Amino acid sequence: MISHEIDYKIIGDDIQVVEIELDPRETVIAEAGAMLYMEDGIQFETKMGDGSEPNQSIMGKIFQAGTRVLTGESLFMTHFTNLGVGKRKVAFSAPYPGTIMPIDLSKIYGNELIVQKDGFLCAAMGTSMKIHFNQRFGSGLFGGEGFILQKLKGDGMAFVHAGGVVMERQLNNETLRIDTGCVVAFEQSLSFDIQRSGGLKSMVFGGEGMFLATLRGTGRCWIQSMPISKLIQRLSPGGGNAKKESGSVIGGLGNLFES
Predict the structure, then answer these.
(1) pLDDT tens digits for 96-144?
(2) Which among 41, 42, 68, 137 has the fewest CB atoms less than 10 Å away?
(3) pLDDT at 91 over 90
(4) pTM, to two decimals
(5) 3-state SS record for the chain
């Protein structure tokens, strides 16, 4: 096993915390600013890169850090290592209401998981986090997930944050159409694309949006009920009609005139 083997506990319901228990010399990597508390004996260090390639050159680390900026994440990552004698705990909190998903990458197809660009929270040392480009133009332009996603690779535990409730679906040579922006993660065996939601009448008056995300093939995917973009939309002025109108052409024109 390449990644450190860590124990964990998920605390809370709506705004969750993941508590990681580290054996001596074990390390967990996390997004900058995600730490909630840590016990005595744990030392943290801010570094460029995820540490999965210890012999990586300086230019390689700079390039990797630059790709993280493209995904909207911090330039640096924080490494938390237990330098004490016994077990020690460190906890990380979710940035907004939702669910923390524990993912065992050793049980993921190809040990690789494609994640929305702001979904990564923390992972066992040895997990590689790289940039993943949407190969289809429409997926990046209309999909809500953007052109750039994250790819997690390894054989240890990784923790992904999502908005609202998270549902796991297993596709067996099937097609699943999902509201844009609600795809949290999916295995690389699935193809991701964006398609029109229906005919012209449905697109204009349906209120379900002009486009839907489409996952096709065999593999697992994870869906969030309330992505942060929708939450902001609901809380913004005039957001009360968002459920009914935000996805339709009529709703978009109404919002334009209100502005």
Answers:
(1) 888 999 999 999 999 999 998 888 999 999 998 887 766 554 444 444 4
(2) 137
(3) yes
(4) 0.78
(5) CCCCCCEEEEECCCECEEEEEECCCCEEEEECCCEEEECCCEEEEEECCCCCCCCCCHHHHHHHHHHHHHCCCCCCEEEEEECCCCCEEEEEECCCCEEEEEEEHHHCHHHEEEECCCCEEEEECCCEEEEEECCCHHHHHHCCCCCEEEEEECCCEEEEEEECCEEEEEEEEEEEEEECCCEEEEECCEEEEEEECCCHHHHHHCCCCCEEEEEEEEEEEEEECCCHHHHHHHHCCCHHHHHHHCCCHHHHHHHHHHC
